[in-house]
Fold:
Amino acid sequence: MIDKNKVKEIVEEWLEGKEYFLVDVDVTPDDRIVVEIDHHDGVWIEDCVELSRFIEDHLNRDEEDYELEVGSAGLGQPFKVLQQYINCIGKTVEVLDASGIKYKGTLLSVEEPNFTILTQEKQKQEGKKRPVLVDVERTFSVNEVKYCKYLIDFK
Structure:
């Protein structure tokens, strides 16, 4: 089986001096290698091809046969690394907290290991018959949420 750490080292070598960052490397027992990279401005297919060739140049198919897939982390997928949170500051995200409650709001800040969103919640206010929407800042720990992901807005 191909060593996941070896693949990570190869990818990190390719990433040196580039604005891309590694999101994830997965190696299955049947030697299917999936590499996910990301960039603040998105991922170009040409760079995925270049990284794929770089990995292939550093692995020996004569020793082990493998399947290789290199791509972007994917819009709308849960964040896996802190840099993804940082890249989405000011954008709308969805958070599923540890208790199963979903929040939708604007990602305000990231300070490892926490992030803060601005969300609107209905709250009962004195002198009002009905609850009104108010802005509420909520801070979460990256390690304690089930997921946080960017919400695509088509407006």
Summary: The CA atoms of residues 55 and 125 lie 59 Å apart.
